[in-house]
Write a structure and sequence with these properties.
Blueprint lengths: L3 H7 L18 H14 L24 H26 L17 H22 L5 H30 L7 H7 L6 E10 L2 E8 L10 E6 L5 E9 L2 E8 L2 E14 L5 E10 L2 E3 L4 E8 L2
Length: 296
């Protein structure tokens, strides 16, 4: 997702269920290191302040600026630095979430955590400037083109491959569904696809109200046939039966599904546990969310 709320919420408990942040992931930690170094280069901070020559002790290209023009010049420079610090905090360190998934830490407002992380990265920028010698132009070009670019492309393949192996084949991906939810989610429909051998199911739930209610409408399609309306029979807890007529035949599928709800952090919870149809049982590993529609 490109939604900042979604990116932050996806980091909730990402590391061992207690650390809020993608930086704790072994696949994403190297990406954060590359992003941080690239942020230094993008903002022309040391050791990449190459626009200022080594011998120009009077700040080189800034000698033509004075008074408010000089102040505005540096205002833009440091605004760019603060933007990069904010992106580091939001994309990899949990944004406005506390560092650890501990209840009492949520008593502190989220904006305080966000600003604390931004100021931490601002300190890191200053720390690097005081400790690392300046790069030459050729060293910066080699670092960007021969090191960071191949590494970034390699990690795109690694991360996407890992997600394909682990993320989309398991229905218990509430964190992913939660990442799609905003602080006030309004879901209109959810579609699951379940596969069991040669039988393929497409189950769609149209949500009449939010959170989900028994008045929601179900549609079931088997092996690509035209979707048929299903009648929901709640049999207790999360279990229910779906009855529908298709090609003149009465069909019954036993479904185990949690309702669509919102926890105290505003994350939508969606789960399809298992599906049993004419003796063919599909567990959660055979079902996946294929579409999630929001109300206009």
């Amino acid at each position: 997702s490109f939604n900042m709320n979604a990116i932050v919420l996806a980091q909730k408990g990402h590391g061992l269920g207690i650390v809020n942040g993608f930086f704790f992931n072994l696949l994403l930690f190297p990406m954060w290191v590359m992003f941080l170094i690239s942020s230094l280069a993008e903002t022309a901070r040391a050791p990449f302040d190459l626009t200022e020559a080594e011998s120009e002790l009077v700040a080189g290209y800034q000698t033509e600026y004075s008074s408010m023009s000089f102040a505005l010049f540096w205002l833009g420079e440091y605004a760019n630095v603060l933007l990069m610090c904010a992106l580091n905090a939001i994309l990899f360190f949990g944004g406005w979430l506390p560092p650890l998934e501990i209840g009492f830490l949520y008593w502190i407002p989220g904006w305080i955590w966000l600003f604390a992380k931004i100021f931490f990265f601002f300190f890191v920028f200053s720390w690097v400037k005081a400790t690392v010698p300046r790069y030459r132009y050729d060293q910066l070009m080699r670092l960007g083109w021969k090191v960071f670019l191949p590494l970034s492309l390699a990690f795109v393949v690694l991360v996407s491959g890992w997600l394909m192996l682990t993320r989309y084949n398991d229905v218990r991906n509430d964190a992913w569904i939660g990442a799609l939810a905003e602080s006030q989610p309004e879901l209109a429909a959810i579609t699951w696809q379940c596969d069991a051998g040669e039988t393929s199911f497409v189950v769609r739930k149209d949500i009449a109200k939010f959170p989900a209610r028994e008045s929601d409408r179900w549609q079931v399609s088997v092996n690509g046939n035209e979707p048929a309306l299903a009648r929901e029979e709640v049999t207790g807890g999360w279990s229910r039966n779906l009855r529908w007529s298709q090609t003149g035949q009465e069909n019954v599928a036993q479904l185990s599904s949690s309702d669509v709800g919102v926890d105290r952090f505003g994350i939508a919870e969606v789960e399809l546990v298992s599906l049993n149809y004419q003796g063919h049982e599909v567990t959660g590993s055979g079902c996946r969310v294929t579409n999630l529609v929001r109300k206009a």
